[in-house]
Amino acid sequence: MRHFLFLLCLVPGLAWADDWDALAQPGSIAIMRHALAPGTGDPADFDLQDCATQRNLDAQGRAQARAVGEGFRARGVSFDVVLTSQWCRTRETAELLDLGPVVEAPPLNSFFGDFSSRDRQTAETRELIAATEGRLMLVTHQVNIAALTGRTTRSGEVLVIVPRGGRIDVLGSIAIAP
């Protein structure tokens, strides 16, 4: 069985992880690292208002975002709101998912270039989660997800989380190969 699962991971478009059932847990939230955007970080002179100055999704990343959205829709999963950082690669990922209305949320912005805002943004993200009603999805960056959950993610990977008291529990992971 292990060899079969390994082979499935080699086929593009198939899930690396398959924790779709975790979404059925009461209070579960999906938090996604933006789809594939080659490179690391952003250029030193990037402008949040100008996508041409940022690291962006490539064709493979756009296809990955669409495939993740198709995976959710095939299982009848949509969201009341999809909150996203203001970076172009996260906004584009959220829009291509086509899983619900997309709303920018500055606490989800990357702090990769300046970790001094990590604790404040993580606290604000927790507050945002607590204040949002309905089925929620977040699209953000690796550093934000790690700060919130303690877990690293691949490009396009979705963690299924649930807030419990003062902590965030990870219930599962869904990842569709780029």
From TrEMBL:
Q: Which UniProt keywords apply?
A: Signal
Which top-level group of life is the source organism from?
Bacteria
Is-annotated flag, keyword Signal?
A: yes
Pfam families in the cross-refs: His_Phos_1
Write down the InterPro entries for this protein, in alphabetical order: His_Pase_superF_clade-1, His_PPase_superfam
Signal peptide segment: 1-17
- Entry keyword Signal: yes
| Entry protein name | Phosphohistidine phosphatase SixA
